[in-house]
Amino acid sequence: DAVVKDWLERQIVSRVRWKESVRRVFEMGVKFVEIGPKPTLTGLINNICGQGHCDFVGTIEDFDRFLSNL
What we know:
59% helix, two-stranded parallel sheet, 2 strands, mainly alpha
């Protein structure tokens, strides 16, 4: 389908709008939470939105604490 082909071509050559997307979600009041072995996205999000706007959950204990604070 020509429409899909055109869309995919534009998707490949267009820039990633990571910062704009994170800022928009942040402005909507969403709290970011990263679950995983390392706080990679936490650092990126805090650089964009300011410190303290992304929680990092790296262990089962962290996860239990996170759930108890909801």
